[in-house]
Amino acid sequence: MHALRPLASLLLGAVAATAVALAVLPLAPFVIASSVFARYLSLDFVATPLARPFLIFLAIGVIAVAIWNLKRGRAGAGIALAFFSATMVGVLLAHSVFAFLLSWESMSLISILIVATDRERKDVRRAAFAYALISQLGALSTTIGFAILAVHAGSGNFSTIAAAAASLSPAMRATAIVAIAIGFGSKAGLVPLQFWLPRAHPAAPANASALLSGVMLEIALYALALACFVLVAPAGSLVGLVLLLSGLAGAIVGGLAAAAESELKRLLAYSSIEHIGVMVSALGLAICASALGFPALATLAFLAMLFHALNHTALKTLLFLASGTVVERMHHVTDLDRIRGLGSDALKRSAPWVLVGCLAAAALPPSNAFVSEWLVLHGFIGATLSGNLELAVIGVLGLFALLLGGGLAAAAFLKLFGLAFAGAPSSRERETESPERFDAAVLSLALLAALVLALGIFPLPILNALLVVATGTLGTSPTTLPGTFTGVAHLATFAALPAVGAIIFWWYGVRTAKKNDAVWACGSAPPARSAYSATALTKPLRRIFAFALFPERQRSFFPAATSDFPTHVRYAVSTRDVTNEAARAIAALAQRLARRLRIVQSGRMRIYIAYAAAAIVLALVLGR
Fold first, then answer.
1. Could you tell me which of 415, 259, 269, 263 has the C-alpha nearest to residue 326?
2. For residue 68, how many other CB atoms are within 10 A of its CB?
3. What does the pLDDT look like over 483-533, one tens digit per residue?
4. Are the beta carbons of 92 and 18 closer than 8 angstroms?
5. Helix (H) or strand (E) holding 218
6. 154 φ/ψ angles, rounded to the nearest 5 degrees
7. Which stretches of 72-196 are DSSP H helices?
8. How far is CA 174 from the centre of its chain?
C-alpha cells in the first residue's frame, strides 16, 4: 500500500493545480444541457469572482495534504481525498442548481465514506451515521430552497436566479433563505447544528480531517455568502441578525468546549466551530450593515470573513496534519492527560510549527488569525460607533462574544502546546520514542507555518486582492477603507517585534547557558503524577462554565451518569475512582440531597439566629 502514496499525492497535486488554474485564468462558462428540461437540469460551470479566492484556499489545503501524505497517512485515504477535493472544486465552479446539487451531494457522500474509514470501531460508525444524517437533511433543505428559486426564475442558472431575486415575494424569500441557510449552515457546523462536527472530524484520518475542517467548512461558508449576496439578494437585516447570533454562539460554544476538551482531535474540531462562528458572525454583520445602509462597514466585515477563511484553511490544515503525526508517533494515544514533552525528542522537528499553529488558532500575534480577527473586531467596533441603534447593539454583543470566545480558545491552545509539547517528556515517551527526523510530513507543516506567519506579518497584499472580491460582491467602492488596511499591516508588523525579540533572547540564553539543574521539591525530584494534567488545568473553567457546557460535560460532574463516556471526559469528582455501580448510585444520591439542602444556607444572619433559637427551644423541650 505504501507504493500508492506517490500516486495519491500526484492526484491531489493535480486537483490543486487545476484549482489554481481555474482561479487565475479567465475561462468561459461550460454548459451541458441534460434533457428537454435543460433550463432546470443543465450543468453550468464557471469560476465566478466570489469562487476564485476559495479555489486558492482549497489549493493551499490540498497541496499541504499531498506533501504530508508522501510520508504519513493511508495511501487509500489519499486517493479518496483526491476525489473529495475534485468534488469541492465542482461545488465552487457550479453555476446552476443541478450542477451545484450534484457536486454538493457527491462531496457529502465521499466525505461520509472517508469519515467511516475505520468503520470497525463503534464510535466511528456512530460519527459517520450522525454526519450522514445531518448531510442528507441539509441536502434536502438546500434542494427545497433552490427549487423555490429556480421555479420563480424559470431557470436553474444562477445568473437568471440572481436577476429574478428582487421580485421574490416576502414569503417565498423567507422560505427559500431559511431552507438554504439550514442546509449550508449544517455543513458549516453552525450552532445549533454543530453536533456532528466534533464526532466526524476526529473519527476521520488526519489528512481527511485537515480537508474537512480546513477546506470543506470554507466551501459551506462560500455557499452561504453566495446565497445571501447573489441568489437571494437582498437578504435583509433579519437574516443577517440570525446568522450573526448563530455565529457568535458558535464562537462561545466552540471556544468553551475546546478549553474543556482533553482529546486532541476533538479539541481541534471544537476550535473549528469557534472559528467558523467568527466567520459567520462577520458575514452576518456584513448583511446587516449592507441592509441598513453602511456600505463601508459591510465591506470591512466581508473582507474580514474572506481573510479569516484563508487563515483558517492554513492554520487548521497545519494542526490537523500535526495531530496525524502525533497519532502515528504515539500509537493512537491522543489524550492530553497521557501525552507529555513531545517537543523534546519524539516530535522535536514538528513542535515549532505546531507552536505557530497554536498561536494562530488562539489569534495571537504575529499570526495571520490575529490580523483577521482584529479586522472582525474592528468591524464590530465600527458597528458600535455607527450611530445606528440596531448596529450598536449588534456591535456590543459581537465584541463581548468574540472576546470571550477568543480568550477561551487561547486557554485551549495553551493547554494543548504547554502539556503535549512543552516540558519534559514522561517515562513512556523517553522509553518508546526515537527522535523525529525531517521528512515530507515535517516539510508540509513548515510550509503551512511559514504561510501563517507571512500572512500575519505582511497581510496587505492579500487584503488588497480580497478587497476587490469583497467590493465586487457587495457592489461598493474599492477605495473606502485604505486607511484601515494600512493600519492593519502596520499593526501586524509591529506585533511581530516582541516575538522576534523573544526568539533572539531564547537563542542567546541557550548559547550562553552554563548550568542546568533538574526541578526538585523539598530536596527530591517531583514525581510525574505531580505535574499538571489537561483535566486539572481546565477544572476552574469547567466549574465556572458548567451551566453552559455540552451535555456529556454537564453529566460528567455527576458520577452516576458518566459510565457511557470515555475516561478523558470524566472530570474530577469525589467518586471518580469508584467502579462499583452501587457506590456510584449512593454517591449520586448524596450529591442530589446535598444540592437540595443548599436552600438552608441563605446567607442571612437573621435566619441563622432563628435556627439557633429553634435549636435552643427544641433542646429545652426535649430536656424536660
1. 263
2. 32
3. 555 555 555 556 566 666 666 766 666 566 555 556 555 656 666 566 667
4. no
5. helix 217-226
6. 75, 15
7. 75-93, 97-115, 122-153, 158-164, 170-188
8. 28
